[in-house]
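Components:
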Amino acid sequence: MKKGHEISLKEYANLRQSSLPMFPTEMLQPASGLLYIHAPRRAALSHPGLLVAGLLCASLIVPAVTAQKPGKAVHAAKGATVPASSVLLDTMTGELQRAFTSLGKPGPNQKDADKQLPPYFLSYSVADSSSVNIRAQYGALADSNTNHVRVADVQVRIGDPKLDNTHGNHRASAVNSLQMPLGDDHTALARTLWLATNAGYGSALDNFLRVKTESQVRAKEEDTSPDFSKEQPQVSIASPAPDVSIDKTAWEQRIKALSLVFREYPDVYQNIAMLTVQNETDYYASSEGSRVVAPHMLARVVVFAATRADDGMDMFRGQTFEAETIEGLPSQEQMEASVRELGKSLEALRKAPVTEPFDGPAILSGRAAAVFFHEVLGHRLEGQRQRGDEEGQTFTKELNKEVLPPFLSVADDPTMTTFGKQWLSGTYSYDDEGEKARRVELIQDGVLKTFLMSRLPIASFAASNGHGRAQTGRMPTGRQGNLIVTSTKTESDAELHKQLIDEAKKQGKPYGLYFEDISSGFAVTTRSAPQAFQVIPLVVWRVYVDGRPDELVRGVSIVGTPLAAMKRIVATSDKSEVFNGECGAESGTVPVSAVAPAMLVSEIETQRQQQGTQRPPILPIPGAASTAATKEGQ
Amino acid sequence: MNLARISGFFAAGLLSFAVLAPQHAVAQSTRAEAEKDPVLKAMLEELDRSMAHLQLPGFEKPYFIEYRMEDVQDFETRGAFGATEGSQHSHARVVRISVRVGDYKTDNSGPRGDGALQLSSIDDDPIALRSALWSGTDQAYKAALAAFAQKQAELKQVQTPPQADDFSKAKPIVSLAEPVRLSVDEQGWTDRVAHDSGIYRNDPAVNANQQQIQYSTAAFHARVTTTWIISSEGAIVRKASSSYSESFGVGTQADDGMRLDRSYGTSGLALSDLDSPEELRKHEITLISSLNDLRKAPMVEEEYHGPVLLSADASADTLHSLLASGVTATRPKLGTEARTNGPFASSFHARIMPDFLSVVDDPALKTWEGKELVGSYTVDDEAVPAQTVKLVSEGHLENYLIGRTPVRDFPESNGHARAGVTGPAHPVIGVLKVTAQQGLSDDELTAKLIAIAKERGLKSVYYVETLGTEATPRLLYRFDLDGKRTLVRGAVLDDLDQRALRAGVVAAGKNLWVANYATEVPETVLAPALLFDDVTVKRANETNDKLPYYPAPE
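Structure:
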C-alpha cells in the first residue's frame, strides 16, 4: 500500500472537472426508456438520475440525485459552514482585476514579441450551492444526502464587442469552469481562479483566431449585430442564502410515506418521490465593475410514477410541489392526497381506450396552457433564436405584428415572486450575466413587442433585458423566467365548457377534447427540423356533445404548427394556473414558471402516439394483495 | 498502465474482501441462518417466486437466476491549494440481476454481459427490496428471451460450433461474513486533506518555490461494501470489503512548457494501513522537491536502444499491463476455434517469459512483508471460492484465470470472476505474484546493467524508477559508466511488449514490490525488478502547452 500513485495532468483535469459516477447511468434509466431527471439549477452536479421525465422544459422537473457523484459533488461536512463570504467576493474582484490588467502584457522575462491580445471583458461567476436530496421508491428510502459545492465560471472575451471569441457557434467555449475551495482561504481561492482564468484565456485566444478566419471566408451574415451588448455595471450585495437546515429524519419519513401511497396502486410499476432543498448564492464580478451577490432558494418535492398498458403503451405522471423554503411546502396530507390522485389516474389511464386521430376544438387546462405557451411561444421568443444561420427565426420578422388573438398578452416577469399564493420558481433578482431582472412585455394585445434578451444583441434589439440565464458551466442565453399569459376575453369554466360543446357541434364533431395535463417535449426551433412543437399530453378527456359523461383516453399526441394553433385560441377562463418546472436548453437547466388561464382552441389536431411493445410485468408487484403469481401467463 | 491505479485516486477504490474469514475456511452456514438477514430473506423470497412462476406463455422458464446486491457506503473529501473543496458521503444499494434461459450448454449469455440493474432501497423494507428485484427480474427475463432467440439464429450462421459450454456448474456454497459499516472521522479527514494540499505553500521545506506550482490537490476516499449473492442453484454468500486511500498530486511546467506531474497515494484495507501524517508529509516533500529537480533536469537524448533496468515498482506496472488481461480466459468470438482472447489466446503450454520467471495468482495471500494486499479475496462475485492458480511455470503458460464462462479445456471456474460495483463479473487477477529463480540484488542488477553497456560500447544506460501512464517514465535516470547518475525528463519507453517479456528479460531482482491497484476491482501485483536487454528510450515529443499567461497570485 505504501505505493506512489502517479497521475498525469490530463487525469488531474478529469479529477477536477468531471467525475466518475459511482454507478453507471444504465441502471438509472427506466425500463420504459421514457424519462430522465433533470439536474437542479446552477450547480448541476447531479446526474441524470432515476427514472423520470425530463422532457425538457417546463414539465416534469426533476431534481436530481447528487449522491452518486463522488467525483464532483461535494458537501460541507458539519462545521464547514460558509458565512457571508466577503472574502470570496473580494478575492474574485481582486484576482479579476489582476488578471484583467496582466493578461496580454508581456511578463518580466518575456519579449514584446510574446505579447498576446488582452481580454476586453472578463467575468467570474461563482455558484455556492448547498443542498439536501432525499429519494424514496417503493415505499422505502433509496438515497439521502447533503452537498455543498462551489463552482467558478470564468468568462473571457477577446477582440471587441463587435466581433469576439464568442461569435457564432464558438459561444459556448467562452466559459471555463472549475470547482472552488469552500471557505475563506484567500490564497486557495485566488489560485483556483488563476488556474481557471489561464485555461479560459488560452481557449479564448484560440477561438478568437478561428472566429477571425471564419469571418473572412464566409458570406455576409444576415444579422450583423455585435457579439456583446454594452450595459451599465451593477452593484448589489444581498445577504447570502443560509445553509440548508431541515429535519432530515422527519423528511425522510415524509418522502417515504409519499412513495408508500403507491402500494395502494399495484399497477403503478415504478414510482419515486424526491425532495430537493437547494440554497444557492451566486457571486458575480466583472471587469466592467459589476459586483453582485444574489441568493436563490428552492424547496421541491417531486413524485413520479409510471405504468404500462397491456398493449405495451407506457404512461407516466408527475406531481411537483414547490416553495422558496421547505416550510412553504404543502402539508403531508395535501401531498399524499395529491399522490393518491396520481395513482388513481394512472390505473384509470392504463385501462382507458386508445385515442383516435382527431381534428377539432379543445380546451387546454390552465396548467396545460402554461406548458404550451412556455414551449410553443416562450422558446421562440428567446433573443438568440432570431440570429444565426441555424435558427428557425419564427418571430424575427413578426415584430410589431399580431401574433396572437388581440385579447391575449404575454409578459415574462422574474421579479414576480408569487402568483396568488403560489410561489414562482422562475424568480430571480439578477440574471447570470449580472444584469438586473426586469419585467418584459413580450406580447401586448396580441402584438409582438420584444424578445427575451441576454447580452447577445440581435438586429432589432441591442441590449439585454435581464434574461441572460444559464446553468453553472454554460454560457448564458436569453431564457424565460416567469412567463405570464393574461387575457381580456375571459369566461367562467362552465361557460368555456359550454362553448367547447357548441364549437364541436358547429364543426360536426361528436366530441371535443379536454387536455387536463401535458408534459413538454422539445421545442424544435432550428431550420433543419419542422417547426412543430412537442408537448406530450398526459391526461386527455373526450367531452361528448350528446351529454354522455366525459371519457378518459390515452395515447394522444398533438400535431400541427405552433403559430396556427395559437391563433385559434377563441376564449380563456377567468382563472389562471401556475406551472413550476425546470427548463433545459443550450444554456442548461434553469428553473422557470408559466402562468396561464385555461383556453378554448377552435381546432387542434391530434394523432395516436408511438408506443412501446414491451409487455407489462409478468408477475404482480410484491406486496400486491396476496396475489402471488395470479397474473402469470397473462 | 497506471490508469487503473489512478482512478482509485478520484473515485473508485472498491476493495477487496479481506475482512472475510480466512480463505481456506469458507465457513458453511445454512439457509436458515441466512434468512435472519432481512436483505437475504427478501432476495430469497423473490428468487423463489421468480423461479417458480416467471414464464411468458409459449416461452421457456429461466433455468438460472442470480441476484447480487451491493450496499456501498462511500466518503470522499478533496482539497486543493490548502483548502477543502468539500466532501461527500453517499450510501446506496444496487442489485444486479442475471437471468438465464436455455441450459448450461447453450443459453442466452453473450459478449455484452446480461441481466439488469436496479437501484434498491437502503431501508431493509422487504416489499421495497423485493419490488426492485421484481422489476429487474422481469426486465432481465424478457431480455434473456430475446437474446436467446438471437443467439440461436447466430449459431446457425457459423460452421464451427462453440468450443465450450455457455455456463459451468458450480457447487453452491453458503457463506456469511459480517456486514460492514463505514465509520471515519469525516471532519478530521476533511481538515487533513485540506492541509495536505497546502504543503507546497505552508511547509518551510518546500514553500520557497510555491509560485512555480500550478496545481496541488489531495484526496481521501473511504468505501465499505457489503455484498449479498444468491443463486437459484442454492448459493448464498454475504461478504464485506473495505478500502481507504489518501492521495496527493502536484504539477508544474518546465521552462520549455513540458508538463511535470507527480503524485503519491497510500491505500489499504483499514485506516491503519495508510501512512501516518508524518510519513505522508515526507513523501509530499520529496514529490514537491522532485518537481524542482525535474524542472532543471536535461531532456533525454533523442533515441536510445539498449539495456534498461526497471525498478521493481516500474516492473510491477509493466507486468500488470503486459500480463493481467492476457492470463484471463474469456469466451472467444462465436464461430472461431480460438480458446480465449487477448495476447495469450493461443499460448497455452507455450513459453511467454524466460525460464527463470514464474507467475501465480494467489488471492489467499493477504499480506506481503507486512503490507496488506488489496487484491486478496475469499469468494468471487459468482459465489465461487477463490483458488490459487499457477499461471506460468518456468516461463510457460500453464493455466488461465477463469469464471463460470468455460473455454476449451477449462470447463470449470477457478474462482476468479470479479466485478466492480454494479458491473458484470469477469475474470480478473487478484494477487498476481511474479518471482524469479536466483534473483539478484539491486546492486547486482545495476552492475549487470553497466556490464552490458561496456560490452556493447555504450556510453550510458537507463534506469526507470517510476512509471506514469502509457510507458512514460516519471523518474528516469541516465547512468554513465563511471557511476554518474543524471535525472532526465521528456522520455517515453517503446518496445516494452509481450515479445520483450518473452525474449528480452536478461535478469530479475530478488525482492518483490507490492503494487496495489485500488480500482473498482482491486488488484495487486508483486514483482521483482527486471533488466531488459533491448528497450527503446526516446523523446516523447508531446505538445508543450503554453506557460501560464500571467504569474500565479502571490
